[in-house]
Write a structure and sequence with these properties.
Elements lengths: L1 E9 L10 E6 L7 H11 L4 H20 L4 E2 L4 E9 L13 E10 L1 H8 L2 E4 L3 H12 L4 H7 L8
Parallel strand pairs: 1-6
Antiparallel strand pairs: 1-2, 3-4, 4-5
Helix pairs in contact: 1-2
Protein name: DNA-binding protein
Pfam family, one: HU-HIG
InterPro entries: HU-HIG, HU_DNA-bd_put, IHF-like_DNA-bd_dom_sf
């Protein structure tokens, strides 16, 4: 299976004056909703869709509760979740207070099987969303998309 990507020119956030560099940007091709996921799981098991939704909802609720309790939550091969604190440094241990804490993120550590899936992943270049939109507009206007591609110069944005 291949992961679609486009390429975008981006600034270095640590050095705003540095020249932009090209970076890969993953391109999603949709979303799997809770409804769709629950239908898939129900079709693969003996559990009905309503029960799947109930279990998934309770799982998320319990994940959040456990994280608030300071626990790391281990979902086996899916991976582990834990809270990570973002804080400003203080000169000394005595100078550090809760005022230095700026926020909290959820840290995700993928399970071993999930890490191994990424090892064999192939990458497929595709047009950026901006380029796809421009081609669609051109087609709707009756323009030749091939001519659009030949005359269009890459900009500072997505290419």
């Amino acid at each position: 299976m291949a992961l679609n990507y486009s390429v975008a020119l981006r600034a270095n956030p640590m050095d705003k004056d540095a020249a932009h560099k090209a970076y890969a940007k993953a391109q999603t091709n949709g979303e799997l909703s809770l409804k769709q996921l629950s239908k898939r799981v129900a079709s693969q098991t003996t559990v009905n869709r309503a029960d799947v939704v109930a279990v998934l909802t309770a799982t998320v609720d319990n994940l959040l509760d456990a994280l608030q309790e300071g626990k790391q939550v281990d979902f086996g091969e899916l991976g582990k979740f834990r809270l990570q604190i973002l804080s400003q440094g203080a000169e000394t241990l005595a100078d550090f207070t809760s005022e230095n804490i700026q926020g909290v993120n959820i840290q995700y550590i993928p399970g071993e099987d999930l890490k191994n899936i990424f090892a064999g992943l192939e990458f497929q270049p595709v047009a950026s969303r901006k380029a796809q939109s421009a081609a669609l507009r051109a087609e709707k206007e009756g323009k030749d998309v091939a001519e659009l591609v030949k005359t269009d110069q890459p900009s500072e944005g997505n290419v």
